[in-house]
Amino acid sequence: MTPGYDARMARAEFLIGDYPFAAEILTYYAHICAAQQKLRGDLERSLKKGNVPGAHDLREQLDVDRVTPHARGMLETLGKYSPGPLGAFIAEFLSRSEARQAAALQNYILMGGTDQPAADSREQLVAAILVQPYAELLAAKLANPPAVIEGNLCPKCTARPVAGVLRVEGDGGKRFLLCSFCGSEWEFRRILCAYCGETRESSLPVFVAEKFPHLRVEACDTCRHCLRTVDLTKDGNAIPVVDDLAAIPLALWAEEYGYTRIHNNLLGT
Q1: CA 133 to CA 207: how far, in whole Å?
Q2: Count of CB atoms within 10 A of residue 163's CB?
Q3: H or E element: which one contains 100?
Q4: Tens of pLDDT along 62-80?
Q5: What gap in Å lies between CA 189 and CA 157, rounded to an integer?
Q6: Coil, strand, or helix at residue 208?
Q7: Given the DSSP bridges, would you call strands 225-231 and 260-261 parallel, antiparallel or unpaired?
Q8: Which of 119, 150, 151, 240 is deepest in the core (most CB within 10 A)?
Q9: What's the DSSP call for residue 199?
């Protein structure tokens, strides 16, 4: 699972020194983490002990009624730090009835992390900020998946991966995929497109940039999708969900060469 919020905030602060061009994104993400940390604590206290969701049933276990009571306080605080247009949307979101807010969260619970495009990217972001701590909390209660999974969807919530992770094993690295919805990781084969399943190495180019020695873009010339991967064998202090946010130039490069990311990260960088 993704490290706790204190570690994420500390990593974001550290990366600002290395990647000043990403300072605004990373600073805002730290504010999101602070808000999500409080929400997670509130949710942990409200959940019944021993309430462990069944396998492949994570989304059905997410109850929006547990989140909506905390939405106002969380979003009012976060709105103070949000960029102008997003801050205005948060104010508009909070002006809605609780039923409309709940409907937005339920839609994200059903469609978040899938190929279904969002009708409103701002609403999707707000919903993701509110739902993700809850999804991570329940995912942590699920049993870990089998050692190696052939499927390219999260075994806990069936969402697409947002990033890849290479973890140290022996003299090399073992590949994992990081879920875009619940933050889970699952082991995945090294030479395999995480979108279409292409296995020909000649169709799976890997690109690295000098500015990001521990980050790489794993592309597929068959489906034209790509996945950014955080290589912990090169920087063991990296936190994939945070370091990925700072890799803005890699997103621009992929777009220039016609690759589409399998799934965007929280802030679309």
Answers
A1: 32
A2: 26
A3: helix 98-111
A4: 999 999 999 999 999 999 9
A5: 20
A6: strand
A7: parallel
A8: 240
A9: -
pLDDT (tens digit, 9 = 90+) per residue, 181-223? 999 999 999 999 999 999 999 999 999 988 899 999 999 999 9
| Domain boundaries defined on the chain | 5-139, 161-261
As a whole number of angstroms, the distance between CA 5 and CA 2 comes to 9
Instruction: Give me the phi and psi of 225, to 5 degrees please.
Output: -100, 160
Beta strands 225-231 and 161-169, pairing class: parallel
Residue 242, CA distances (Å) to 15, 133, 136, 188, 264 in order: 9, 15, 15, 21, 13
| Integer Cα distance of 269 and 265 in angstroms | 7
Nearest Cα to Cα of residue 182 among 215, 216, 222, 153: 153
Q: Provide, for the chain, the percentages of residues in helix, strand and coil under a 3-state DSSP scheme, each rounded to the nearest 5.
A: 45, 15, 40
CB 236 within 8 A of CB 173: no
Rounded CA-CA distance 34/192 in Å is 36
